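Sanity check

After download, print the first record. It should look like this:
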Amino acid sequence: MKPAPLNYPALLTVITGMLFLAACSILRVPEAEPEHKTTTSGLVYTIIRQGEGPLPSEGDMVRVHYTGMLADGSVFDSSYERSEPVEFQMGSGQVISGWEEGVALLNEGSKASFIIPPELAYGDIGFGVIPENETLTFEVELLEVYSPVRPEEEAVEAIVPSHETPSGVRYSVIEEGYGERLSDEMHVSIHYTGYFDDTGQQVFDSSYQRDEPVSFILGRKMVIPGWEEALPNFRVGDRARIWVPYEMAYGRQGRGAIPAETDLIFEIEVVSAMPVAEPERFDTRGRDTLQTASGIRYIIIEEGEGELPKTGNILVVHYSGYLSDGSVFDSSLQRSEPFQFVLGTDQVIRGFDEAFALLKEGTKARLIVPPGLAYGEIGRGPVPPGETLIFDVEFMEIRR
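Expected structure tokens:
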């Protein structure tokens, strides 16, 4: 095709426009600093990202992610680290008053920071690692606002326990199923609603609202002890109510929206259960063992052809985790569900963050993680204190 003749006045206009656009792309307009506001009670809050969803009202359930810091800037708690948002009911007194006041100011989808004076937090007594008279800073992300699920049939108080386990967990079957009886080493899926009291008004969590049952392997301490002890009494299809004393729930410390020394009530529905097969271990014979400066040892089973991940990438992986005695304590393969995490953001144990930064996409490897880069001298769930962990991992995909 023969090119059209040049229109010089028009060309000059285009060039001038291009130069203007180039200048705009170079000259960065400073963004306005977020505005700090103080309420009459003394709470200082800053909107980092304004959401467009509804404001929560008293009685609503809210689901949030958060990071909590002491006055010296050290992090004392983070739901991001556990990869588990917390849920609580507005106006129920389940959280400190600074949170009640601050979250009520946020639209769903908002992210904000709260600076909470002691009188709106843990006062002159403190709590756990929080000293007395401590001002706390929280970065809070309001993920969801929803109405609590109410019982559709019988009132909670209309059902009384009919059985009790040796540890004091009581339960009653509301509607019998006819499926397989639950037992250890089954992959179990359960729908539930959790209550703080017998009235059915104080709902603290519900899988029905998320339309996603919770799935876990029974017998591996992946759920509270009260569930572990009660569930083998049920079959697939059962609807039941379980009364769990605080010693068999979250104990003297509590967790997230659940206060210390709080007895819990659950209405559950056993959706499915199936035995899990042992994952096939990687064959490491004849392969070199490499070691990082921090003490992680790793063996490349099959080198991937993809690129190395960067901090902030979303990694999709399959893994099987073993204790030092060779027993499986967790496996994404047994759940038939790959695991995802954001690299370098403390969502996983430090050993995972460090090791995956060394693996190309598509790699299969064995990781041997010392306790200092796993769960340390405290342990967690089925992992004992001071335990070295072994993971067979498959780095499936990088998602950006």
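If your output differs, re-run the checksum step. Summary of this record's structure: The chain has seven helices and 21 strands.
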